[in-house]
């Protein structure tokens, strides 16, 4: 028989010592607390667990409405052109130099931004298996209320340097 064999749900295993779960794709799902351990030192303001889930949902909606820009080059270009929206950065980016200037650009342009703990989950939120360092969510009529709500929540997050 040619082709890939499928794994069943019975192949999903849980380690007794921690909360990580191996999924069918072979990827290890790490708990929120473990993801936060691997953040870069500048990852502030960090979105809460609940806000992160809401950000991932609105990223998915923005992708469906062509209001999402992803990747360092594309987001930088949009910031230089004066586009407004919400910037979501991954907190576990390495090397740190590739995104360290983005928060300064956001503060100068008065654009709300926050960090999420995982670059792989940030990429998965808009439907790809690739990791993403940064995304720009532009406002759209399809999710205007949720956008304004998230923008207000990001403004409430305390920053610590």
TrEMBL record:
Gene3D superfamilies: 3.30.1330.30. Residues 54-146 form the Ribosomal protein eL8/eL30/eS12/Gadd45 domain. InterPro entries: eL8/uL1-like, H/ACA_rnp_Nhp2-like, Ribosomal_eL30-like_sf, Ribosomal_eL8/eL30/eS12/Gad45, Ribosomal_eL8/Nhp2. Residues 1-23 are annotated as: Disordered. One of its GO terms (molecular function) is RNA binding. The keyword Acetylation does not apply. Residues 10-23 have a biased composition (Low complexity). It is found in: Nucleus, Nucleolus. It comes from the Eukaryota. Keywords: Nucleus, Ribonucleoprotein, RNA-binding. One of its GO terms (cellular component) is box H/ACA snoRNP complex. The keyword Hydrolase does not apply. Belongs to the eukaryotic ribosomal protein eL8 family. Required for ribosome biogenesis. Part of a complex which catalyzes pseudouridylation of rRNA. This involves the isomerization of uridine such that the ribose is subsequently attached to C5, instead of the normal N1. Pseudouridine ('psi') residues may serve to stabilize the conformation of rRNAs. Common component of the spliceosome and rRNA processing machinery. This is H/ACA ribonucleoprotein complex subunit 2.
